[in-house]
Amino acid sequence: MSSLKHLELWFITGSQHLYGPETLATVAEHAKEVAGALNTHSSIPVSVIWKPTVTTPEEVTATLAAANAEKKCIGVITWMHTFSPAKMWINGLKNLQKPLLHLHTQYNRDIPWSEIDMDFMNLNQSAHGDREFGFIMSRLRLNRKVVVGHWKDETVVAQIAKWSRAAAGWADWQGARFVRFGDNMRFVAVTEGDKVEAELKFGYSVNTYGVGDLVKVVESVTDAEIDALVSEYGDTYKLMASLQKGGAQHQSLRDAAKIELGLTLFLENGNFKGFSDTFEDLHGLIQLPGIASQRLMAKGYGFSAEGDWKTGALVRAMKVMATGLKGGNSFMEDYTYHFDPSNPLVLGAHMLEICESIASSQPSCEIHPLGIGGKADPVRLVFDAAAGAALNASIVDMGNRFRLLVNTVEAVAPPQPLPKLPVARVLWKPHPNMADGCKAWILAGGAHHTCYSQNLDAEVLEDFAGMAGIEYVKIDEKTDIYQFKNELRWNDKAY
Which run of H or E residues covers position 331? Predict the structure, then answer.
């Protein structure tokens, strides 16, 4: 996922034949310029492709049907340069299956005060043409994003860029396959969910494979392949002395490499985009996949522990959305608290599996006892995560709907060293504050598993939830618990 430029947004402009061929030619010229500027803007990671102006119901329906059929097309941007009677959009919009962004803009930024005449007014009618278009989408109850402002304005472009990232993540989910090795952790509620409803709603499938199926592939790995990966470990990370060649636990490093190679091959052969496992079901594996999970996430795979397929799929989507951005995205868990009144903090971590993409410096490759699971000591990467603005996102199954919950946070450097904590970790301050942030999360039923992001903001996730047609709940600096409770009550009624 080094680039998203192979993905397309179709730029579709609406008009009608009422204005004559000269006006329509100018509309096309302007639309090409707007689409071209968006296509070459550095902040928009996908390609923006101009499409001919649509002026009849037949043209609208055919263009939107073509967008549905084109795999590279991940969404459409619409703009009514002139007045485009909205009844001619009904059939096309009813059948549109791709995300839609309505750009409410106009070609000129300023009114030409001394020259404006009726010819100018007839050509530049977005102010009411887009209102006509907006009505029909509202009447059809369509989920869409509305962006308002001049197309050269950086704030406008930024909103389009965020939406394009959400659209890329949504497109990646369509037809995606995720594998669970074993079931979810016994008796745990929030990691459960309706996989049939998820496939209907999200477009991806989740199926379980026995750990024995994975073990068979792991056992096919050759010594030469293990040698090469162990060498890569040494070149990439600070190896603990006991793991180095000749060290007392070097074989454990080779065992970890063998698991990573087998797991990678299993995912590639099955065309899977992510996976989950659980420490309660490791039959035939020497150790829990620690460094394997961390490195596969860094390559773009989704992952979650304890059978939590919803979070694993979300990690994958957020990694796609963040393609090309500085910083990382990782499976995460709220693990323990620092309740110092002067500096309250959440320590996020997991037993092993935090993605190295969020590390503040070169990770250390270490081996330590796990304490649970009854297997050999697993190899893992240990590091502190970088400080800065971040967020946690969680998808939960509320029974009659899915809810996407987002909490913005501020990550901080550890105030003291953590020499005895043998896992990757991050410390953060939840918004709006420790007490209300945690309280709101619990009131909303947020999971203990999340995707932690250093490079996506809440608007991208809000756009993503809109594309999925699911509930979106945000906890940020402005959250008020009284109003938050009301929002949850209203949402229950709305759904």
Answer: strand 329-338
